[in-house]
Structures are given as structure tokens and as C-alpha cells.
Amino acid sequence: PRRWAGVIAVVLGVVALNLWIGVEFYRWVRFYETVGQSIRVDRPAGVEGWLPIAALMNLKYWVLTWEVPEVHAAGMFLLVAFLGISWMLRKAFCSWLCPIGTLSELLWEGGREMFGRNFSLPRWLDLPLRSLKYVLFGLFFYAIAQMSTADLQAFMHTPYGLVADVKMLDFFRLMGRTSAIVIAVLLVMSVFVKNAWCRYLCPYGAMLGLVALVSPTRIRRTADACIDCGKCAKACPSLLPVDKLASVRSAECTNCLLCITACPSRDALQCSTARRWALPGWAVAAGVLGVFFLVVTAARIAGHWDTVIPDAVLFELIPKAGALGHP
After folding, report:
1. Longest CA span, the chain
2. What is the pLDDT of residue 5?
3. 278 Cβ partners below 8 Å, 6+ apart?
4. pTM of the predicted model, to two decimals?
5. Mean predicted lDDT score pLDDT of the chain
6. CA–CA dist 81, 98 (Å, integer)
7. 213 phi and psi, to 5 degrees?
8. Residues linked to residue 270 through DSSP beta bridges, in sequence order
9. Which residues in the chain show pLDDT less than 50?
């Protein structure tokens, strides 16, 4: 099998969790949109994982003031967890926890089944396109860096900031023609090119990749055990030349372990720490889930997980969220 059963279980579990969050969040929004005529459910704070810019803003505010933000703090703690995973286990969030990464993998694997292969852009085009996600992240980072702590707090308490999660939902529910065309193009491109969105445009992945550069963990190749079959490089979703490297240092590596599962030589490839402690698939899965649940549990116990907004405010803002512009 291309992946261990444990890896499949983690990925499917994360997909199921995101689907549940999506359904519950929609039901929560509908309660306020129908002025209390539909079933009331608790808001799943995990939806804030889809608000990376708000999370980065709150993280800056927390670092500078040591005060946990009152609005969308769960998104900030999720970002802390994902940064911690990236430092410990490289960009494993992208291959193990990110639902967009899972969708991307399904698309290019489906494309390979249909057309017999995936396609790679020429290096002269691939390299500048790969830089786009770093440019996008740089623009977001620069904009947030210019904001004072007062600006950050004020933004989160604007009507737009309070219902930023609902605005995100409305983007998909009330999608315009241009947005639909762009998403359709990305989906089609992902069928032919491995992880097109992740490889070229995802600023979140760019940030985690930069953190992963200082991770003590990486894929290492033992030259004496390598039989030079090239199967590891062919299996790599990030198109890295694993078969030519002593260790994979690239920010593009998501520690998905597909190169290891594809390798026919038992001792040629391994994921290991700086001290050469081998990390089998189950250990990587345990590390990813361990950091995730540790941070989430700590935030819950400390009482900083749920955003509490009065019903009167939500009944006023949510029905007109689509009309709220950026402050």
C-alpha cells in the first residue's frame, strides 16, 4: 500500500472532523439568519482554522501584549499548533491535517489514473510560480507588521472582524462568477499537476515551509543502501529529487512519507531527527496529533477556546454579513 493504515486513519479522521465542523457551523449561522427559527447548536470554534489572517493578527497581538485576544482566539491557537508541528516534523500539517492538501492529492492521483501520468511545468516556469506563495505570504505579513496592537484589537472588534468566519462561509455560499472560474481552473490544474494550489499559491504553506527549514527532522537517504531506482523521486508530491539528496532540506517537503513507502530498499530512506533517531510512520502521526491535541486541550482548559459574542450582536450582524465590507 502507498500509505500505512495509520496515515490513512489520520487523514480520514481530519477530513471527517472538518466536514462536521462545516455542517455544525452552517447550522449555527442559520439559527441567527432565521432569527432563532431553526435549531440552535453550539458554534464549533475549530472553524477558525479557516481564518489564517485573523490567526496571524491575533498571534502578533498575543506575542506583544501577552494578552489572549477575546475574538477568534481558537484560530490563533491552531496556528500555534501548526507552527509547532512544522518546527518538529517539517511541513507535516500540509500532508496530514490540511483538508485542501487531501483534496489536492485526490485530484492528482485521480488524474494519474485517468491519463496515466501527471505533468510537470518546465523549470523556467515552475520556479517563478513557486515563488508566488512566498510573495503572497510576504504581503500579508508586511500588512500585519504595520499594524499596532491597538489597530489589531480594534480590527477584531469591528463588525467585519466579529463575523469574519461568517464572511468566509458566505464566500463559498454566495460565490461570484470570477471566484468560481478561478477555483474551477485550480481544480482542473490540480488534476494534471501535483498539488498545484499548494505548490504555487498557498501562503499558509509558504509560512509553514519557512518554519520547517529550521526543523531538526528530515528525510535522509543512506547511499550505500540505495539501489538508484528513482521510485522515491517519482512518488514525491513536491517533485523533489529525493534519490539524489543525502537529506531533504527543501521547504517544499511535507513529510508525507510517500518516498519512504515507495522505496523497495528497506534501509535506504528514513525520517529521522538531527541525532539520527528514526521516526516511523506511527511516530510521525503521533507527533502531529500530539501537538495538535495538546495545544487545543490547553486552550480549552484555560478558557480561551470559544469566542463569546452576545446574541443581540450576532442577530444583528450575521443576517447582513454579506453586505459588510472590509473596514
Report:
1. 69
2. 59
3. 270, 271, 272
4. 0.93
5. 93
6. 13
7. -60, -25
8. 220
9. 1-3
